[in-house]
Specification:
- By secondary structure, the protein is α+β, with helices and mostly antiparallel strands.
- It has a domain at 54-119.
- The chain is built from two helices and three strands.
- Strand 2 and strand 3 (109-118) form a beta hairpin.
- The longest helix has 12 residues, at 39-50.
- It is extended, with a radius of gyration of 22 Å.
- The termini are far apart.
Length: 119
């Protein structure tokens, strides 16, 4: 597909650019499944490893903090693929607390999580 501008010519094309495209020499991604490394995936992995209270390194509004904490506490009752928090494994049991952030601005809340184990 080629896109043209109203003034004529290719959008983003530069006739003076003689650099070789890296797309011609790059390898395809590996055939193995891609592992998501989002914030929550990393945070939950760390909490599983540490097995103690871990404060989540983000601040939330009061309602969001309460909802996320509730979602994690009830995660073992729900289908892990349908949770809003990614990285929860099937059967994961979590204890959670949320409160006003000790260092954050007013109106911002922290969440503490602790991995209990699996069902």
């Amino acid at each position: 597909m080629v896109i043209y501008s109203a003034a004529g010519g290719l959008i983003g094309s530069n006739p003076d650019d003689d650099r070789k495209s890296s797309a011609e020499t790059e390898d395809f991604p590996p055939d193995q499944a891609w592992i998501r490394r989002s914030f929550w995936v990393k945070t939950l992995q760390d909490a599983r490893r540490r097995k103690t209270w871990v404060r989540v390194n983000r601040l939330y509004t009061e309602k969001t903090a309460a909802q996320v904490a509730s979602d994690l506490r009830a995660a073992h009752h729900r289908d892990s693929s349908k949770l809003r928090v990614k990285g929860v494994l099937p059967g994961d049991r979590w204890d959670t607390r949320w409160n006003a952030s000790p260092e954050g601005p007013e109106g911002q809340y922290s969440i503490w999580i602790r991995y209990i184990g699996t069902e």
